[in-house]
Design goal:
It is globular and about 55 Å long. Helix 1 crosses helix 6. It has a single domain, classed as 3-Layer(aba) Sandwich (Rossmann fold). Strands 3-2-1-4-5 form a five-stranded parallel β-sheet, with helices on both faces. With 202 residues, it is an alpha/beta fold. Strand 4, helix 5 and strand 5 form a beta-alpha-beta unit. The chain is 46% helix and 12% strand. It is built from six helices and five strands. The longest helix is centred in the first third of the chain and has 26 residues.
Length: 202
């Protein structure tokens, strides 16, 4: 009985994530201008290259920079999958004509989405940022939104691509990963931010 409850719970969670990602994509146009774009990291391939998802996320951030929706870029992500630091590899692949180096800020220590928000916040606070555009993969938008909503900064979440732009197997892996992660946090709750500067919103 417990096994079937767990299975049904996971399936329902998967449908919630799929539905939220699709709804965001269907309704999405260009976000409103903000003070900064926050690009969430993505595991780097073992040869040091960007994955298909990482490339699509970077291209979406570049699109917004080209449209001048923000003049600052914060890139998040530490060395999660291998020795390569996600934020650094994303920055190395960024079109240098879109934004000056002085307006690119790297958060290089986070290992997950909670740490993305926790460790990016001091950077955003120092810059006086009031609103951010967050770029991530479609299935991650719901969980990332819930985490970043705990910061005292207005945010607008953006799914970086449509599912047809990413290989089917990669989409499936993303959905499975996010389903398990979201189900875990639904049961156990999100951990508290550890950064001393973060004052979570009620």
């Amino acid at each position: 009985m417990i096994k079937w409850i767990f299975i049904y719970g996971v399936l329902i969670t998967a449908l919630i994530l799929f539905g939220s990602g699709m709804a965001l994509l269907d309704s999405q146009c260009n976000p409103n201008p903000a003070d900064a774009i926050v690009l969430l990291g993505n595991p780097i391939n073992d040869d040091g290259s960007l994955s298909s998802e990482g490339r699509l996320k970077l291209e979406k951030a570049e699109e917004f920079l080209h449209l001048k929706l923000a003049d600052k870029l914060v890139i998040c992500g530490g060395a999660v999958k291998n020795k390569f630091v996600e934020a650094e590899v994303l920055a190395q692949n960024l079109d240098p004509n879109l934004i000056g180096k002085e307006n690119i800020y790297l958060e290089t220590n986070s290992q997950n989405t909670v740490e993305n928000a926790d460790l990016a916040y001091p950077i955003l606070k120092e810059l006086g940022v009031k609103k951010i555009i967050i770029v991530t993969i479609p299935f991650h938008t719901k969980r990332a939104k819930e985490i970043f909503d705990r910061l005292p900064i207005e945010n607008e979440m953006v799914a970086a691509y449509r599912l047809t732009e990413n290989p089917i197997f990669n989409n499936f892996k993303s959905l499975v990963r996010e389903t398990l992660a979201y189900a875990y946090y639904l049961i156990f709750g999100y951990p508290a931010f550890e950064g001393e500067e973060v004052e979570e919103e009620d």
